[in-house]
DNA sequence: TAGGCCATCTGGTCCT
DNA sequence: AGGACCAGATGGCCTA
């Protein structure tokens, strides 16, 4: 534990020092920029702990400089991750606004998963309904060709609901995220029940309405799919890691 | 005050 | 060699 690096870390650099190393505020937000900006020669080398030798050869200040550089990179990486997380929050069908507490990271991920499952289910339901409408004939207008499968299950302009979606809200803000093994706070998706929405009641009452109009999406047109919402948060085997 | 969430640092591992 | 990625540790902030 007492390595040279820990020696450095034992000298807590001031925040100013860290910030001055790289202006993260000016970062472009291109998540993949750090991966593609520098051309690196590809060569397979045996991985061995060569850092230890190098560290001993480096002076104290050089080590500190290296540490600051690495820390800065890691900070930027985490900032990129947070920006991506914010982008995910923006497209989630959840009430946004100053009066709404921001979803936590774990809640965002779980909600996103739920949302994807819901959309998948909606698409399947749409296909089924179209199949019924146009008859069961194999030459009906509805044929699940690859091109049509990418078709408009929802209008292209159908963005995220300004209000919590009926299929999403219960899963996040009140009902247990069907993962069950999550902590209550995480399962609630917010820091404390009822604290996410100051106007939770109003939001909940807007279920079948979408911006004052009947919601065009299939979730509001047809009964909720039997298997998705409740099973939305069932944990994958890999989740249990 | 305990618990949750988060940012940051850090060392290790993997990849190019 | 350098960078990305990952996970553990730590401390601060906030809320019930």
From TrEMBL:
Biased composition (Basic and acidic residues): 45-59
SMART domains, per database record: HLH
Molecular functions (GO terms): DNA-binding transcription factor activity, RNA polymerase II-specific; E-box binding; protein dimerization activity
Renumbered residue ranges of the record's region Disordered: 1-62, 142-167
A single BP term in Gene Ontology: sensory organ development
UniProt entry keywords in alphabetical sequence: DNA-binding, Nucleus, Transcription, Transcription regulation
Protein name listed in UniProt: BHLH domain-containing protein
Naturally occurring in which organism (per UniProt): Chiloscyllium punctatum (Brownbanded bambooshark)
